Amino acid sequence: MNAEPLAADAFLERLPLIARDMLTVWFPEPARWLLNSLLAIAAIIISFATLFSLLTLAERKILGRVQNRPGPNRTGLPFLPFTAGRIFGLGQPFADGIKMLTKEDIVPRAADQFLHFLAPVALLALSILTFAVIPFGRHLVPVELDAGVLYFFAAGAATELAIFMAGWASRNKFALLAAMRALAQLISYELPLLLSIVPVIMLAQSLSPTAIVTAQGALPHWYVCTPWGFAAFVIFFIAALAESNRSPFDLPEAESELIAGHLTEYSGFKYAIFFMAEYFGMCALSGMGVTLFLGGWQAPFSFLEFIPSYVWFGAKLLTLLLMFIWIRATFPRLRMDQLTRLAWKFLVPLALINLLTAAFWHHSHSWSTPLQLVRWAIAIFLVVCPFLWLGRALTQTFRPRTYRYA
Predict the structure, then answer these.
(1) In this structure, is residue 352 part of a structural domain?
(2) Alpha carbon separation from 137 to 169, 224, 299, 316, 361 (Å, rounded)
(3) Cα–Cα distance measured from residue 230 to residue 251, given in angstroms and rounded to the nearest whole number
(4) Which has the closest alpha carbon to 185: 394, 338, 289?
(5) How does 265-276 read in b/e, with b if 16+ C-beta sit within 10 Å?
(6) Handedness of CA 136, 138, 140, 143 (dihedral sign)
(7) CB 83 within 8 A of CB 89
(8) Is 107 within 8 Å of 175 (Cβ atoms)?
(9) By the 8 A CB rule, do 167 and 25 touch?
């Protein structure tokens, strides 16, 4: 993590680095760099593993509330009396973890044993690698790369190989078919996901996540507060839903069609690793969305800067994660043809047109104050009109269904 001069920062802002230095100050200087890196890796894994367990509980309780039923509320915390430990079902993640650890690991006889084991490990490892370049706070950047955004999406795209590996190694036609459908979905939505971030890179003039956060500042200068930035954020968020295999784009695991998708032949802890990697990918994409569009770790207003930057980043991250859960509880699953049409006939053209909108916004920044209203009107026109036109063209090819009864 960054070790630049911290004298001017508040104590709470420096607290994570102070704790790190207290642990490594007793070691010689040559070994301190390695220990700092290992501590950063351990902090990321522990933090997001804990967030994963709490997210599964929160998602089940929120879905239960939306569907007018109780969520998990009976499982108590371990090592506590029964009545005292049964607080909001907080022990459910522990029970789920124990269940997954103790379930039998069944591997088909015809499966490729090595690849069957390697697929979940590779998927989880690649998901963890994406956290390396996300700036979690003013001084909490695990790895500072000038091309950090490029690295993030390169590491994220490699997860497609692990998903196909799982379907291929299972030697199961259902798993293989689901893996092919997953690849079709991921490749289709990789393009609008990448095109949505190009305007951000154009205006920030950098591929460094830290530089992009610095270029935004406080409200109202966050990129999401501009017409092109809002359109790019919506495209990014929709594509992130598909990339993280979340509803309404969870077709690879559509249990009504393909059993459990590419996970059909997985059980026990291997299945849990796939599940964890999905949530890690969702957290990583949400973190990159916060970095690119929502000002990153920066406070919305200058008078709120006394709150540590990592707290602001966490609040924004949790907001996006709750949006993922809310969408899962609200929208039904799409068909495969609807999914691909939405990507290629709507999101990709909209993202390409948004590049022109961002270019116009950049070259018109020097317009005088009276012309700023004209600038906003033109930019909103360039966003809304293609949206309406492409949306109408997307739905016109489908005729209204007619139902005949005997």
Answers:
(1) no
(2) 40, 19, 11, 12, 29
(3) 27
(4) 338
(5) bbbebbbbbbbb
(6) positive
(7) no
(8) no
(9) no
Parent domain of 316 = 11-71+103-336
Q: How many whole angstroms separate alpha carbon 97 and alpha carbon 60?
A: 15
- From the CB of residue 29, how many other CB atoms can be counted at a distance below 10 Å? 7
Q: Measured in whole angstroms, how far is the alpha carbon of residue 377 from the centre of its chain?
A: 32
78: preceding bond cis by omega (within 30 degrees): no
Q: How many domains does the chain have?
A: 1
Q: Do the domain assignments include residue 292?
A: yes
* pLDDT tens per residue across span 363-381: 988 888 888 899 999 999 9
Predicted confidence band of residue 3 (pLDDT cuts 50, 70, 90): very low
Residue 370 within a domain: no
Helix (H, G, I), strand (E, B) or coil at 141: coil
Q: What is the pTM of this model?
A: 0.91
- What letter would DSSP give residue 304? G
Burial class for 35, CB neighbours closer than 10 Å (0-12, 13-18, 19+): middle
**C-beta separation of 134 from 291 below 8 A:** yes
Quote the CA–CA distance of 61 and 69 in Å, as a whole number. Answer: 9
Residue-wise DSSP of 64-114: HHHTTS--S--PPPTTS-HHHH-STTTTHHHHHHHHHHHS-----TTS-HH
**Is 77 inside any structural domain?**
no
Considering only residues 81 and 162, tell me which one the structure prediction assigns the higher pLDDT.
162
Q: What is the 3 state secondary structure string of 244-298?
A: CCCCCCCHHHCHHHHCCHHHCCCCHHHHHHHHHHHHHHHHHHHHHHHHHHCCCCC
List the one residue out of 287, 186, 187, 189 whose CA is nearest residue 239.
Answer: 189
Q: Name residue 140's beta-bridge partners.
A: 137
Closest CA to 309 of 322, 296, 320: 296
Residue 4 has pLDDT above 50, yes or no: no
Contacts of 93 by beta carbon, 8 Å cutoff, 6+ apart: 53, 54, 56, 57
Q: How far apart are CA 272 and CA 123, in angstroms?
A: 12
Q: What is the pLDDT of residues 44-69, one digit of tens each?
A: 999 999 999 999 999 999 988 888 88
**Sequence-separated (6 or more) residues with CB below 8 Å from residue 215:** 203, 204, 205, 206
Backbone angles phi, psi at 137, to 5 degrees: -165, 180
